[in-house]
Amino acid sequence: MSSPSNKSVSPKSLLSVQTIVLSAVSWAVLALLFFLLFSTSAPGEERPAWYAIGTYIFEEVAYLGAAVLCLRNWRSPQIVSGRNVWLGIGLGMLSYFLGNLVLGYWELGLKQDPTVSPGDLFFVATYLFLGWGMLLAVLSRRLNLENWQWIVVGAIAVIGGLLAWLIAAPTQTAQSFLMPPAIAQTAPAPKTAAPPKAVKAPALKPGQSAPPASTPAPATSSTPATTEQKEVPAWVTSVEETLAPLETILGWFYVVSDLALLIIATVLLLAFWGGRFSQSWRMIAAAAFSLYIADIWLGYAQKHIPDYQTGSLPEVFWVFSGVLFGIGAALEHDLSTRSRRTGGRRRA
């Protein structure tokens, strides 16, 4: 016997919204525990390979699930906020999934650590599709923000832009901005070491032969390397050399895109605050914030932490971003289908 609450679930939905949200939250908690427990390694040691595989699995499952839920909204004619909105966000999630898959193969399968990989082409598509979908969500509503809300948007844009510039700018430029030359410490000049005194060799006694010069020890035969360097396929090297000139352009593209998504997410958060469909768009805004945090951290770590290894704790925000996009899509689908059914019963 079905309960009345079960009747509110769409018959085409395989999983209820409660099950989807609970599964997504559980996945995020498991990811957080995984990063907390295993992201720390001993100084000078690399993280084990299984940890890197685990981080990719957490991200891939989160973004693939989000893509499926967003594209489900796109195929549903009952979605209130517009199907193209969810088409853009869904393609963004799918592009991130494919880009991360390619990057994982490049790093774990080919043992390469390039500055630009073919996965970046999909990451660029991620930002373009996400920006398109979220911008459609903003333009589809009549923005009627109050003055203090525009001030909040402006303040977040300035702070986010300044932070992104400090991360993306050359290290010397950022340091000169944070520490002007006037307050730079003037360290005393180090004392030059006195030249070593010449030691007079003792005179040889008559009939005493000079001691033989110390001959260098014979060179020992070089031992074979303990680890064999895996030969890199020629096509991999060719692809990396082709994409390498794009490093600077892609770096600034990610910075500008992160800032644009941050501003759009803030506008979405304020525009949908307190409305009937505010729950889903709060999740979307939080997902964009999580993506911004993870990207900014990676940019900072690659520039200021020597020999940085990916997989540190702040990178769990990439998992959070995928999870939150999925939760937002599930809530939007549930609210839209319930709204249409309620309207149909009233008209009857």
Automatic annotation (TrEMBL):
The chain crosses the membrane at residues 20-38, 50-72, 84-106, 121-139, 151-169, 252-273, 280-300, 312-331. Residues 188-227 have a biased composition (Low complexity). Keywords: Membrane, Transmembrane, Transmembrane helix. Residues 188-232 are annotated as: Disordered. This is Uncharacterized protein.
